[in-house]
């Protein structure tokens, strides 16, 4: 029995159709061509724990699969390995993760893996790699850059979130608008004055979707005041 066999046994064609639509896999959409088996996240997490001892070569096979769930389960294995790894092993996992960003090519693959791997690893380290990712040509690397900072926010560290948000402020894609707005909202939960200072400087230039995410927890009058700002 292999992980691939276990995944195929859980395939649900009906659910796969729904997931393909939800994750926008059609022609010209952000995940064009991605293929789904129709497996739930809890099922994938269960299998990732079962096969958590797979080596990089076997995980690489998963990451290079056409099947979304193969890639996600492979990435989940990395998160479980990282949580139990020694510092040297963590470095190897991070290097492997960064070498395979081509496979982290949908928003769920980014969001459930960058925070517990890169975020944890960089918490006490230099974060220049995030700025390289933010300045890359890859939508998904750019999303990794901003979402990873969620780990820092939880520890009262906001500088990188704000700096990367500025870099991505005029990004054309709605998935970056949502991610930046989400992280700014998280800053606001921890420290409202820091968010207000950022918004007072940038709200008039922010894409509306980004701004709406950032101010989601504001009261109605304050939300409207920011939404009505003009460049």
Automatic annotation (TrEMBL):
Organism: Phormidium tenue FACHB-1050
Signal peptide: none
Top-level taxon of origin: Bacteria
One Pfam family in the UniProt entry: DNA_alkylation
InterPro entries, A to Z: ARM-type_fold, DNA_alkylation
Name of the protein this chain belongs to: DNA alkylation repair protein
